[in-house]
Amino acid sequence: MLPESRAGFRTALAPRPTPGLLVFPGAAGWDDSIEPFVRSGGLVIFESGAAFADARALAEQRAGLRSAFGLTIEDPVPLWRDGRRPSYLDLAWPAPARIRDFSYAVPVRGGEAIGTIDGAPVAAVQRSGLGALLFLGSPIGPALGHADPDSRAWLASVLDHPPTSAASRRSAAGAAAAATPAAHSATTTAVNTSIV
To answer: Scanning 61, 86, 133, 152, which has its CA 20 to 30 A from the CA of 182?
Structure first.
């Protein structure tokens, strides 16, 4: 949905092997392969592009996140209103980072809140089974593509300290080889870090 997010993640992840990781940049729907991949020890970075999608894609994403991970997403919020530019996306885990917003955000409830914009939670980690889903309601892919040092350092810290147990990280390498994204929603594209 957001080509600049896909390109940003692809560029940022290219130099490093990342088995056990699936990235859904600028996702505008839902993919049923996410839940079993996470439960088997994988890490999914799910960057919502729902603010740039139609109502059907938002409803699909909302239903998938709720049923698979108990996360509730709100309607996208325009951040650049009343002539003012908002503050940054403030991420607290696994390392603090401030990343410029992308004009809209999707607030999230549930899981462990790890990031806010103007006090509203827009990023969360939800552990499930042996793995975890990292939800980003404000796209960081464009910042990654522009080699923003804060976004690159934050992503590196996620990869260096994934929100999964040591045992699941060992099993995740096998899970990544076996897991390939299922038939995706027409508006959801996965970037397996081996880049599918």
So the answer is: 152
Two structure tokens written together for 66: 């709720």
List the one residue out of 160, 187, 180 whose CA is nearest residue 59.
Answer: 187
Fold (CATH) for 3-192: Rossmann fold (3.40.50)
Task: Extract the tokens encoding 159.
Answer: 């990869």
Q: What is the DSSP string of the chain?
A: --HHHHHHHHHHHTTS--TTEEEEEEE-S--TTHHHHHHTT-EEEEEE-GGGS-HHHHHHHHHHHHHHH--EE---EE-S-TT-----EEE-SSS-EEE---SEE--EESSEEEEEETTEEEEEEEEETTEEEEEESS--HHHHHTT-HHHHHHHHHHHHS-SS-HHHHHHHHHHHHH----S--TT---EETT--
The whole-model pTM stands at: 0.85
